[in-house]
Design brief:
- This protein is 58% helix and 4% strand.
- It is mainly α.
- It has two domains: 5-89, Tyrosine recombinase, N-terminal domain (DNA polymerase, domain 1); 116-293, Orthogonal Bundle (hpI Integrase, Chain A).
- The N and C termini lie far apart (65 Å).
């Protein structure tokens, strides 16, 4: 006997939280998206085993006509595919009719990426004669070396960073851990900050965080945003830079250098490789511009 929508939603919610360990906001979005589809499917009076691609395409088209963006539709399709995968794993249906359906192309502005020269200028902007400058130089170098999110950078503790072995253990979205390697420059700068600058910021603080504010406490995202803006001015960078810009630059420069997409996905901590693929478009665009500029037949 087919379970009620409420029962299915409850079991799927537990699956997302316990087994997939998805972030709270992702679970909330998926639950909302799935409720829409379940209501639509229930109105057709068909069991889930009889769901068809035509039905899903009609549903998604209806959602588009109601004003949903391509990004929201892509998330909705991902949610529904995951739900049917769950139904198969629970042996409630025999096969997932949507497993190989492609997401709609997501329009909109590509993320801002710095050139290699701009990255060097930004990394050299802090005044390393001061404790705060040592900290900022170390943070920027680590950010560009690893591509971690700003929230992940600011929450790094000593137990999660191994300078001798050259890696950091990052706790990302959904409390998922990943290991990301460090380059020699980042290792040198972080070690210099820890040995020569951090104690002067910490004072009597017993914080286990690697990076501290001037009072020995945790840095905020807003505080880091202000630092990025300040150093962009010092470096003469006029682009619309955000706290994630070095993360975007990290991924794009790796792909331009020949790194494979799967490795970049793992380092960035993306659950879906589709999210990482946006950087291939940026890298290809960059290479095309270089070709046009320097090739004699460009």
């Amino acid at each position: 006997m087919e379970l009620s929508n409420a029962s299915l939603l409850d079991r799927f919610y537990q699956y997302m939280v316990v087994e997939r360990r998805l972030a709270d906001n992702t679970v909330e979005s998926y639950s909302r998206d799935l409720s829409r589809f379940l209501d639509y499917h229930e109105a057709l009076g068909l069991p889930f085993a009889d769901a068809t691609r035509l039905e899903l395409l009609t549903f998604l088209n209806n959602q588009r006509e109601q004003g949903l963006s391509s990004r929201s539709l892509a998330r909705m399709l991902s949610c529904i595919k995951t739900f049917f995968y769950f139904l198969v794993s629970e042996r409630l249906i025999e096969k997932n009719p949507f497993f190989d359906m492609q997401s709609p192309k997501i329009g909109g502005k590509l993320p801002c990426v710095l050139s290699r020269d701009e990255v060097v200028a930004l990394l050299n902007a802090p005044d390393t004669e001061t404790p705060l400058g040592l900290r900022d130089k170390a943070m920027l170098e680590l950010l560009y070396a690893t591509g971690v999110r700003v929230s992940e950078l600011l929450s790094l503790e000593f137990k999660t960073i191994n300078l001798d072995a050259g890696f950091v253990i990052v706790v990302g979205k959904g409390s998922k851990e990943r290991i990301v390697p460090l380059g020699m420059e980042a290792i040198t700068r972080v070690r210099h900050y820890i040995e020569s600058g951090r104690s002067r910021l910490a004072g009597a603080s017993k914080s286990t965080l690697v990076f501290l504010n001037r009072s020995g406490g945790a840095l905020s995202r807003q505080g880091f945003w202000k630092l990025i803006k300040k150093y962009c001015l010092v470096a003469g960078i006029a682009k619309d830079v955000s706290p994630h810009t070095l993360r975007h630059s990290f991924a794009t420069h790796l792909l331009e250098g020949g790194a494979d997409l799967r490795s970049v996905q793992l380092m960035l901590g993306h659950a879906d490789i589709v999210t990482t693929q946006i950087y291939t478009h940026i890298a290809q665009d960059s290479l095309q511009k270089l070709h046009k500029k320097y090739h004699p037949r460009g």
